[in-house]
Write a structure and sequence with these properties.
Elements: H1 5-8, H2 15-40, H3 47-50, H4 55-104
Helix pairs in contact: 2-4
């Protein structure tokens, strides 16, 4: 069995593409933040505004909207963290490629 570099192939990542994906995660996080902040935060619905016959339902709706807003906020933070992790990983990969190229040269 022959053991040379051709038998192993080449593995790599497209650093620019990974950074572009990170930008998309940031854009999605910003979009969700704005939607939650601009739209959900302005909804002032509760039992009092639902009317006497629907107080419990109005309060339940308000609680549900608050829960959705909190979950969207968590999702947005997670998307931002994913973007950071992708950028860090791409940067480390690029640094490793430069280091390896310098060692070969």
């Amino acid at each position: 069995m022959r053991s040379d570099i051709k038998s192993y192939g080449h593995a790599g990542i497209d650093v620019a593409a990974v950074r572009a994906v990170a930008d998309q995660f940031d854009a999605a996080a910003d979009l969700v933040d704005r939607a939650a902040g601009d739209h959900l935060a302005r909804l002032a619905f509760d039992g009092a505004s639902a009317g006497r016959a629907h107080v419990a339902r109005g309060d339940a709706l308000r609680a549900g909207l608050q829960r959705v807003a909190a979950e969207l906020s968590q999702w947005s933070r997670a998307a931002g963290e994913i973007a950071v992790a992708l950028r860090v990983g791409a940067g480390r990969y690029a640094d490793a490629e430069l280091y390896a190229a310098a060692r070969i040269a």
